Amino acid sequence: MADDNEWDVEKYRNDYESDDHWELKRTFIETHKNKFDEDELICLTQVFFNVELLGCKYNTETMRQISELSKGIVEKYRNSRKNTLKRTFIGGADAAKNKVQRR
Fold first, then answer.
1. What is the DSSP string of 15-45?
2. pTM of the full predicted structure?
3. In this structure, are residues 70 and 63 in contact, taking their beta carbons and an 8 Å threshold?
4. What are 89-103's pLDDT values in tens digits?
5. Is the Cα torsion angle 77, 78, 83, 85 positive or negative in sign?
6. Distance between CA 100 and CA 103 in Å, rounded?
7. HSE (CB half, 13 Å, CA atoms) of 95?
8. Cα–Cα distance, 69 to 51 (Å, whole number)
9. Where do the structural domains in the chain lie, given as residue ranges?
10. Domain named XRN2-binding (XTBD): which ranges (predicted)?
């Protein structure tokens, strides 16, 4: 457990992060700041970010831990994104097939 909870959360904001993404990341950090050492929490935060925003998958135990830690945090973000434009990615083979079939 972290002994020193006075470290600066703001130093972990990346220049390329949108305000929405930073808010999600900052909330995750601040929610769990008293439960983990700084280095461990920042690693968990990056995993959370990768899972939620990039769709990455990790081993079962890590996914379970991130799911537990994100409860009450991620729902607000997901609800705020419900009415936004969503990207759909398709594989290269499917894109080529659609082009040939003129879809």
1. TT--HHHHHHHHHHHHHHTTTS-HHHHHHHH
2. 0.71
3. no
4. 677 887 788 778 876
5. positive
6. 8
7. 5
8. 12
9. 9-100
10. 9-93
Q: Which tokens sit at 12?
A: 């972990």
> Residues 41-85: pLDDT tens digits?
999 999 999 999 899 999 999 999 999 999 999 887 787 767 665
Q: How far is CA 48 from CA 26, 30, 35, 93, in A?
A: 12, 14, 16, 30
Q: Give whole-number Cα distances, 6 to 2, 29, 35, 58, in Å.
A: 10, 13, 13, 30
Q: Which two tokens stand for residue 59?
A: 């081993």
Burial 44-73 (b: 16+ CB within 10 A, else e): bbebbbebbeeeeeeeeeeeeebeebbeeb
In one-letter notation, the amino acid at residue 98 is N
For residues 19 and 16, what is the distance between their CA atoms, to the nearest angstrom?
10
